Amino acid sequence: MQRGLEELPGDEEIIINGHYNKKSEAFRVTTKIFDEFYNAVMDNQSIPVVLVFPNQSDMIRTRKNEQKVYSTLLAYFDSIGYRYIDLTEAFDNADIDVLFSGHYTPYANSLVANYLLVYIINLGNE
Predict the structure, then answer these.
(1) Which of 4, 17, 68, 85 has the most neighbouring CB atoms within 10 Å?
(2) What pTM was computed for the model?
(3) Which phi-psi region, left, alpha or beta, contains residue 86 (left: φ > 0; alpha: ψ -120 to 50)?
(4) Residue 82 has pLDDT above 90, yes or no
């Protein structure tokens, strides 16, 4: 029998109370991957930017002013000073129903592309 993400024992539960569990192995592995990525990009004398792509349930939670499932990951990025883009902001004025059809719709992808373009242009002005 396969267990769901929230049914693992103790500290191994990936999601607790609707948020990523900082104590889980999954969270520790995920942050280690981001650390390796960020450091590799910095070592290459480039500018690292982590992109966080929300799914439909993330957008619904955001619209209800609830914390994002991945808020603990964003807090980790903030604590270390990682540059990241939470793409929920790209969808601020869009109807959720036109953003998702299993995956991002072409419309959602265009919003992401435009949002990133503005970000990159502004990054060049820093």
Answers:
(1) 68
(2) 0.82
(3) beta
(4) yes
